Structure formats: structure tokens, C-alpha cells
């Protein structure tokens, strides 16, 4: 018996901005890039955007906003092109990332006018009962516990070790989570999926208790 888990079901969902790492080539100050990111992320439906909601800004706003599910968001703020998201998203937008800016937490990279300006570290604590719940489930016969996540390998590895999970697949886009689950379905007779959030509807619709 197997259980496939999404990171958001294990963490509190209380995202907090824990650090800002500025790129040496940033065309703007830390105060400016933080403001741009906050105004842009107001338009995002992704849970991580909550971390930016605590940043006080003026009445400015982002325009021409486009959000790509599971990747990031982009728009115009004060006449500047601003992009915020994971490394894959910025790479797709032809943004060269400063390789020195690698956080140990979940990260949001932000570029301004085509230049990597900063990397924000976002922290989300594990739920108080996460470890106990997984142990209880394991005692009930579900021994193979696998986590599918869009987070980095570093973040996924830390959570896996902390909670005693059996395996993880990291840096997955929403569609890749569905594909990963389908492959696991073929390998395991009894499998269930536990997920939440806007990026998991497809995977949840595939999950079921028991075999086919």
C-alpha cells in the first residue's frame, strides 16, 4: 500500500519571508525590488504569494499580469518589467540567474527589466501533527510514503528526512505531478493521493483508495 503526499498537506501554509539575497547585478535597490515583488504577487493565486502580503507598500499596482500555474508570475510595475517565480520559469524567460543565490528554503527569484535582481527565501513550518499522523498511517499498513513537490531538491530532502518519508520527487510542475502519480499507479496496486491547493486538482482527481 502506498501514499502519495503533496508538500502543502504537511506544512502549515503560513508562508513567511525569511531572507532576501540581492544580486550584485541588480538594477534596483532591495527596497525597490521588494516593493515590485509585493505588488506583483498580490495578483497571484499561489499559496507562496501570501509571504509577500505582509510587505507594506503604497497604492501602486502591477499591470499586464500573467501567471503561469506552478511556475511564476510576470507583469509591469512602475514601468518596469518584473518577473517572479522559480528558477525554471525565469530561465524560460531568458533571465540569467546568479548561481550564488541559492537559498536553503523555498525560493522565489525576481528579475527587473530582464536582470536577476534578488532571491527571496520563503519559510513554511511543518504541521505540529505531521510526523505523528504519518507514523499512525504507517502502522495501519501504508508503508510506502512518497512526496511529490514543486519545491527544490534541498527543501524536499529536508522534509523527507524530518518526517521519515520513503522517497520524494522534487521540482515538479502541476502536469508532471499527474504524470508521476500515473506512473506510481502502474507500480502499486493500492495507492492514494493527498493534496491541496490550486496546483493539485488534476492529481487529486486521479487519486483513489484501493486498486482499479
From TrEMBL:
Domain of life assignment: Bacteria
Catalytic reaction equation(s): Zn(2+)(in) + ATP + H2O = Zn(2+)(out) + ADP + phosphate + H(+)
Main location: membrane
UniProt gene name: mr
Name this polypeptide is given: P-type Zn(2+) transporter
Keywords in alphabetical order: Membrane, Transmembrane, Transmembrane helix
GO cellular component: membrane
Lineage, top ranks: Bacteria, Pseudomonadati, Thermodesulfobacteriota, Desulfovibrionia, Desulfovibrionales
Localization: Membrane
Enzyme Commission number, as recorded: 7.2.2.12
InterPro entries, per database record: ATPase_P-typ_cyto_dom_N (IPR023299), Cation_Transport_ATPase_IB (IPR051014), HAD-like_sf (IPR036412), HAD_sf (IPR023214), P_typ_ATPase (IPR001757)
UniProt GO MF annotations: ATP binding; ATP hydrolysis activity; cadmium ion transmembrane transporter activity; P-type zinc transporter activity
Family membership: Belongs to the cation transport ATPase (P-type) (TC 3.A.3) family. Type IB subfamily.
EC top class named in words: translocase
Amino acid at each position: 500500500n502506498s501514499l502519495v503526499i503533496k508538500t502543502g498537506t504537511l506544512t502549515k501554509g503560513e508562508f513567511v519571508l525569511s531572507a532576501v539575497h540581492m544580486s550584485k547585478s541588480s538594477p534596483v535597490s532591495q527596497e525597490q525590488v521588494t516593493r515590485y515583488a509585493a505588488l506583483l504577487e498580490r495578483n497571484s493565486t499561489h499559496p507562496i504569494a501570501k509571504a509577500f502580503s505582509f510587505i507594506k507598500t503604497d497604492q501602486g499596482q502591477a499591470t499586464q499580469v500573467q501567471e503561469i500555474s506552478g511556475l511564476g508570475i510576470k507583469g509591469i510595475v512602475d514601468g518596469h518589467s518584473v518577473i517572479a517565480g522559480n528558477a525554471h520559469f525565469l530561465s524560460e524567460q531568458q533571465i540569467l540567474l546568479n548561481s550564488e543565490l541559492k537559498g536553503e528554503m523555498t525560493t522565489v527569484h525576481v528579475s527587473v527589466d530582464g536582470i536577476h535582481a534578488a532571491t527571496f527565501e520563503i519559510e513554511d513550518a511543518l504541521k505540529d501533527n505531521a510526523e505523528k499522523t504519518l507514523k499512525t498511517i504507517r502502522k495501519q499498513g501504508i508503508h510506502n510514503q512518497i512526496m511529490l513537490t514543486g519545491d527544490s531538491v534541498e527543501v524536499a530532502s529536508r522534509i523527507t528526512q524530518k518526517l521519515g518519508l520513503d522517497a520524494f520527487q522534487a521540482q515538479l510542475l502541476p502536469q508532471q505531478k499527474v504524470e508521476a502519480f500515473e506512473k506510481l499507479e502502474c507500480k502499486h496496486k493500492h495507492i492514494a493521493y493527498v493534496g491541496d491547493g490550486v496546483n493539485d486538482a488534476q492529481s487529486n482527481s486521479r487519486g483513489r483508495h484501493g486498486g482499479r
